[in-house]
TrEMBL record:
Name the record gives this protein: LysR family transcriptional regulator
One Pfam family cited in the UniProt record for this chain: LysR_substrate
Transcription found in the keyword field: yes
InterPro entries the UniProt entry points to: LysR-type_TF_proteobact-type, LysR_HTH_N, LysR_subst-bd, WH-like_DNA-bd_sf, WH_DNA-bd_sf
Organism whose genome encodes this protein: Candidatus Thiothrix singaporensis
Amino acid sequence: MNLHQLSLFAQVVKEGGFTAAAQVLKLPKSAVSAGVARLEADLGVKLLRRNNRHVSLTDEGAALYAHAAPALEALRESEAAVTEMRGALKGRIRITAPVGLGMQVLQPVVSRFLAQHPDTNVEAVFTMRVVDLVGEGFDLALRGGPLEDEDLIARQIGVGDASLFAAPSYLAQQGMPLSVADLAGRDFVLLKGCLHKHDEIYLTE
């Protein structure tokens, strides 16, 4: 069954005739009539009794309209709802970020976002653990480093610096490194979590 032809039929019944339906739909009357005729041919039954003044439903047409009209209205409401959602941001957005980055960078951005889009609700989770973005239902994540999951989409929004720190006692014992090569074989403590999943670091000059 052709949905377009079904909607033409329903509009003819609603308006009480082909002329009125064509005016509402902004289509030629011949196009509306041809669409209904094709629907009748596909179903193998007459749906409407036609005369010069008005149309009336056959028993088959009445049965079809009784079932089709609510369904078509539901489709129109669904389309309107989706269109409205597309035009304005609504609903919940779940975001995760490392603790420091989240508190310093994301929190003020979220505050401005909520002021601009009051129908949204942002749930921000600041954590250093490795998060399963898909499994835990996150829409967005702030991360540093290369993308490790090819199923996700990444966009670079900034550049951050990373630093190495050493205690004076460590430097007194091991000596001050003067180049990247001097760091080879040195002991280090690596903060692991959502930004660092590996046991190695890679440095270049």
